[in-house]
Amino acid sequence: MRKSAFDYLLQGVYLVSTRCENQLAGLTAAWVMQSSFKPAMIAVSLGPDRRTAELIEKSGKFSIQVLDNSQKDIAKIFGYQSSRDINKFSIVDWFESEKLKLPIVNGILAYFECELSGKLSSGDHVIYNATVLNHKVLKNGEPMIFSMRDWF
Question: What's the rounded Cα separation, in Å, for the pair 108 and 98?
């Protein structure tokens, strides 16, 4: 039996990454959604104290990366440690995205390169809304699905 109606809300598991000058940061996020067709836009909800959120606000750019359902180890690296304490990109293989030169982890299904267009405070999170400047499918597969009971 599920404990809460919130357990029935399905979300994917994504990596959010950014680069500000020579600093890289990334985290795991579940609250990601397409927010517009024309122009193509994506919104992501992040804790405002996260290092990744801080660098997104400074740089004005970020990526959303769709994890393959076999990449739980990657999701844990980016979800359980702070970018303030560890360079997560030093322990994974990655490459630069085509347009914005953002760090993209190898093995993901797809990614979006985004330019920040606005933000909205939402309780204990901030929703960052962004225009998609580029997107690319890297391989076929099944995306990872988030379920609270599998993570906490």
Answer: 15
Q: How confident is the model at residue 21 (pLDDT cuts 50, 70, 90)?
A: very high
* pTM score: 0.93
Starting at the edge strand found earlier in the chain, the sheet holding 61-66 runs: 23-29, 14-20, 61-66, 110-122, 125-137, 41-46, 32-36
Q: Is the pLDDT at 92 greater than 90, yes or no?
A: yes
Question: What is the rounded distance in angstroms from the CA atom of residue 108 to the CA atom of residue 140?
Answer: 9
Tokens for 83, please give them.
């970018």
User: Using CA atoms, how far apart are residues 145 and 152, in angstroms rounded to an integer?
Assistant: 14
Helix, strand, coil percentages, rounded to 5, for the chain: 20, 45, 35
